[in-house]
Specification:
alpha+beta; 7-stranded antiparallel sheet
Length: 146
């Protein structure tokens, strides 16, 4: 299992950032355009809730679909876990806290690729792709919340 962490500060109030991130439509705003991410359906409509599930598709090297569930949610922290998709394990913790200059957005992902040893050989590649995706998320989030 590999861990990826990323954080940045958005010059916006924590409630504004929380409301943005708990609207599932934010995914299409902050995801790099070349991924062509699309939320196919969500069991809770546009706002995410604990127990809510979403079905999403996009380009992760090749076009693929995945199914995820919000497994935990409390003020300013929620966890989504992939139930079906490209990863054997995907647990993404989203946390938000007041910080100097705005709100700190903190992402921690525990992931494991499929295919055992062969999958582990590609973990470095997956990690580098996550770095690129989350660099884009930072700039897109800041632009969206100005």
């Amino acid at each position: 299992m590999k861990k990826f962490s990323h954080s940045f500060v958005v010059p916006a109030d924590i409630d504004k950032v929380w409301n943005f991130y708990t609207d599932i439509g934010h995914l299409e705003v902050i995801t790099p355009p070349q991924m062509r991410l699309k939320v196919l359906t969500s069991s809770t409509g546009s706002k995410i809730h604990e127990g809510g599930e979403a079905w999403i598709e996009g380009n992760l090297v090749i076009k693929s679909a995945w199914h995820s569930k919000i497994t935990s949610m409390k003020p300013y922290v929620y966890v989504d876990e992939m139930l079906e998709g490209r990863f054997k394990t995907w647990k993404h913790t989203h946390a938000f806290r007041q910080a100097e200059g705005g709100t700190e957005v903190i992402d921690e992902i525990l992931f494991e690729l499929r295919y055992g040893l062969l999958g582990r050989m590609f973990e470095g590649y997956a990690y580098k792709q996550l770095e690129k995706i989350f660099a884009h998320r930072k700039s897109s989030t800041i632009a969206a919340l100005r």
